[in-house]
Amino acid sequence: MLKPLVFLSWLMLSALAHAFVPQSGTWVVSSELNGAPGRGLAIDVQGSTLVMQMYGYESNGNPTFYMAAGTLVNNTITTKLGRYSGGRYLGSGPRSGVENGSPGNVSMRFTSGLTGFITLPGEGEVAIKRFEFGLTKAPSDLLGLWLYIAEDGGDGTGDFVTLSRSVGNTSGGTGFVVDPARQLGCEFRAVDDGPYNMYCGTISGSTVHWIAKIKVSGNEGEGVTLDTGEAVYIRKVRDAQGRYLGLLK
């Protein structure tokens, strides 16, 4: 079922095997995630440039935001944290914000694409993580068209797989979802296996042979094969409603 996708696979799996970048999106201070309004981070990495915007509060309780930008080197960065004011407000005409000083430098170091640490001015180092809020682990989260790539000895093989039907759950899973030919299926784990929250496997009759464990976040996931420990990459291309999840569709 898995076909050679050599060039694409080589690009993706080279990055998987040797480096990572933080996943773009909303990040939070892990210890502050309590369901109440607080502060947070918007992190984006393009090439080697990282941009971080932080929304927080002044000592008097007024909301404010900061921005930092710089080069990410070996998954770490230290750069100036700028404060800004004077820009557009709701209903205003054109106004340009200006930098309004800096409380100091911010340092970040990432331990995976989803976790890391941050040191803000006047504070000690604390853990941060990608804010995951849309993954319910229900079988319906798996429905759609996925790109599945496995390292396969360094050459890389892959295919597009449509997960279209839930056929019940296995021991420890929340609902096994299979392709129309019942050749491949995946299932979220009721309890995560370390960092991994999903297993995928091939099907023979009524038996599932697990082949990979994967950490899924948003519409993509990374993991390893269970037999050789080689890298696996997946990405949802189209959801169950037929909507494409890429850049141009």
Question: What does this molecule look like?
Answer:
The chain is mostly beta strands and 249 residues long. The chain has two domains: 19-130, Lipocalin; 135-239, Lipocalin. Helix content is 5%, strand content 50%. The protein has one helix and 19 strands. A ten-stranded antiparallel β-sheet has the order 1-12-11-19-18-17-16-15-14-13, with helices on one face. An eight-stranded antiparallel barrel has the order 2-3-4-5-6-8-9-10. A hairpin with a 2-residue loop joins strand 15 and strand 16 (196-204). It is elongated.
The low-confidence runs, each spanning 5 or more residues with pLDDT under 50, are 1-18
Strand content: over 45%
Q: How is the main sheet built?
A: 10 strands, antiparallel
CATH architecture term of the largest domain: Beta Barrel
What is the C-alpha radius of gyration, as a whole number of Å? 21 Å
What is the chain-wise order of helices and strands? EHEEEEEEEEEEEEEEEEEE
- CATH class descriptor of the largest domain: Mainly Beta
Helix content: under 10%
Quote the average pLDDT. 89
By secondary-structure content and strand pairing, the structural class works out as mainly beta
Amino-to-carboxy terminus distance: 26 Å
Strand neighbour order, sheet with most strands: 1-12-11-19-18-17-16-15-14-13
CATH fold name of the largest domain: Lipocalin
Number of strands: 19
Number of H- or I-type helical stretches:
1
Question: Any idea how many domains?
Answer: 2
Give the overall shape. Answer: elongated
